[in-house]
Structures are given as structure tokens and as C-alpha cells.
Structure prediction request, 522 residues.
Amino acid sequence: MIKDPFSRTVAIAGVGESECGRGIGLSVLQHQALAAKRALDDAGLSKNDVDAVMATDVLGLPSLQVAEYLGIKPQYTDTTITGGSAFEGFVEHGALAIAAGLCEVGLITYGSSLWSDQRRLVEQGGVDPRMPAAQFEMPYGDLSPIAAYALAAKRHMHKYGTTSEQLAEVAVASRLWAKHNPRALLREPITTADVVQSPLIASPFHKLDCCLMTDGGGAVVITSTERARDLRKPPVYVIGSGFSATHLTINQMDDLTLTGAVTSGRRAFARAGLKPKDIDLLQIYDSFTFSVVVALEDLGFCEKGEGGQFVENGRLGPGGELPTNTSGGGLSYTHPGALGVFLIIEAVRQLRGECAERQVPNAQLALVHGIGGWLSAHATLILGI
Amino acid sequence: MSNQRPLPKPDQDSLAYWEGARRHELLLQQCGSCQRFRFYPRSLCPHCFSEKFEWRKSAGLGSVYSFTVIHRAPFPAFREKVPYVLALIELNEGVRMMTNIVGCDPNMVEIGMPVEVTFEDLNEEITLPQFKPAKAS
Prediction:
């Protein structure tokens, strides 16, 4: 019988990273293996308990490759390829699979050696030679994916008057959080002036508007609440999810200021029976400062077009009204190419109360929002204790 | 390879488009059922799903929807070009496409600015449609 996957029937039981940073020296599979081992240790489970493997990107047949490398013979796999939002998608799909009885313990893994491989990857910009973008965007010197987000940010500024200083507030808040995350790559505080005076990469984005490039891996263990209750850590329930893809290529996006987060967020809140005001903390895919501003609008945390003003005065930072990207996120902690798994890991740790100096007091409900591709694929999760 | 500018590789959908560009014509597909134009070229209409279409020569006029000035070259071949303008433009036929805005100072480019097509011959096979500020009418 299929249970309702969003009525606290499915929980995240374990999370872990590999070693994140630059020049780590691990291969893609070694990152995934180390993260998987740590996430299973966190849950108090062994690899023999795992009957579902979910992995994406980087490798030819990722779920099968990861399962084989780890010595797991799964009865359920998922290789959803929606860029950085795939991991929020895995939690949604895993929750449904567990509720339907297809599997009981799902292992979500990610690993990347982006920093070590950056020359190759940056030149491809995530574009396969057979994709239309290879014909209709890359020959123009498209700095992919940065330029796509820059085009959206520029249009948002034109339409709503959003300023570079407002975008910079997102980077400033991220760095204040990172100060309290020993794993974060960049921990020195910065000002909005530092951001807008850093070198232009693709206007309106300066260097400090753009996420880091690192190596790293992460893993999440998801299981039934029945199973999770007896494990090492308190269960973090999956209580809402939603997904929306609006395009792949940036020239195909209808309105560059309005994203699929409108739909994914609405669905996640409806399934959870909650509203934005109920949420205690956010983890939003901060590939760029603008990504956070537009997601806050489209998820309903402020009115459309008011995201720039909304992030002013430290609202997202430590002690602010809406703690966001408390690990330092992609801007200050780590970004190995797909950030989605790290957003989930941080949300789980906050909800368990494990975050020491950066702990958000009384955190009970977290929203996690992944963005994949060129503002293409949006996946929202609502997690709670 | 890394020193080469990325060149479009025409395929079954785009061959006519690139052949047109080589003749300095901007060709767009127009649906034979709903009459809407589409970009990029493909085998059916993304609006009404009809497989009927005709290639039409675009007037090559439009306006800037958004733009970014690229300061960091994605490929070594673009290093001598920075800073350059990467834009999305809306053609009067109702489609949007990526282009550079050439023939003007990057600081002159604005959203809404009228543009017209021009053609950049990259080699004997490939010509890239480009856009420049429209002449005052």
C-alpha cells in the first residue's frame, strides 16, 4: 500500500561530506565513497542496509557506477540529471519510492573534482556538443553558466530597479555565516563595497557575486520513519516537495525574471500545509547572489521585484530575520559544480541542532531550494523535526 | 582544440539555418499550422506540435531583451575580444536568440535598444548572424 510520503512517513537519517576544497586529490568516485561512508556512519547504518542508490552527473551511468563501487546491489536507482537541483529531486523521488514500498534505505551521493578539472569543464560550460546551445550560444563567447544568470540579473535590475549593492548583500551574509563554519573555504568577512569593487566577470556580476569552484562530495541517507526512529540521529522529516522545469537553454526562458521556483515552491508549501512565514531557515542554491534574490521572490518570501530590498540590512545573515545559507553556501563554503546535496546536509544539521556557533535557535522547519542548469530546473524541499 | 573558437556544427534541424547565414540571410522556421515563428530550429512546433513549417527570411530587426558585458573569456580564442557584449535579442517575428552586439562601444548598449542583423564570416563554411545597433530610421 502506498503511504502519503509527506505526512512524516519518510525521514533523512544521515548526512555527510567528503573533503571539500581545492586540491583535495580525490577522484570523483572516492569523493562519493567517502561521503557515503560518513553519511551511513552518521545514521548508524551499514552499506548492507542500503537498497536504493541515487546519483547524478559526472559519470556515464552514475547510480550503477556508484552502487557497484560501494558494493551495493540496489533494487531501486535514480539518475535524474537536472543539474544542481537533482539532489532535492532525489529526496522527492526517494520519499515516494519508500512510501510506495519500492525500497527502504536510499543513499544519495555526489562527488566532483571540478576544481582539479576546471580547465576542461569551464571550457565546455556544461554544454554537450550535440545540444542546441553548442550551436546557438557557445559560438558567441557565452561564459556558461555565469552569463545566463547575469542576463537574468540584468533584466531584473532593468525591470525592478534591483542594484548591485543589493545583490552584494547576499554575498556579505554568506561570508558572515561561513565565519562560523570550519569547513568553509572563505571565512573572512567582506562588505558590499568589497563585492562591487571586485573584478567584473560578466556584468552585473563581479567576482564575489559568483560561487566558488571546489572539489567535494556529499551524501544523504533517506529512509522510512519507522526505520529512522531507531537510528543514531533524530529523524528529519520530508514534509513537502515540488519540482518545476521551464526550459534548458537560457534563450528559451520565457521571462528571465520569473523562475520555476514559483511552481516548485507552491507545490512544496501545499504538500506541507505551510506558508513562507512558517519557515525558520532557508538553504537556497547560491550559484550567484542573484539566484537567492529571485528565489526569495518566487518562493513567496517577499513580493515579486522586491527581493533586492528584502535582502538588505542583514536579513539573511547571522541574527537576521531569515537565516539563509547558514553554511556559507556556494559563495563562501564550497561549490563543486552541483550544490544541491550540501544544501540538504546543512538543513538537516540545523534542524538537529548540530551547528554550534552558526546554529539557528529553535530551528524546526527548513526550506531547501535547488536550482539546476541555466535557471532551468527548480526543486524545493520542506524539512522538519 | 582549446585555442579554437567553438564553431557551430550544423545538424539535421539547423542545416538550412547555417546555409542561409552563409548567404547572409537570417532564416527562421514558421509553423505551417499556427503560423508562429520559432527559434532554435527543430522538427516540430513547440507551440502547437505541428510538423509543417516553412523557412522564412527574417527582416533581421529587433531589440535588446537583456545583455551582459563579458570580462572573462570562456575560451582563449575570446581573450582578445573582452570586454564584449553577449545579449538576448527579441526579433520582430517574436523569437528570442543569443548574439553579440557588435559595431558599438559595450557601454552604449541598453535594454530595449533597436538592433539589426549583420553577418560575421568565421571561415568558408560558417557565418555567424550577429546584431548591431539599428540605423536610425
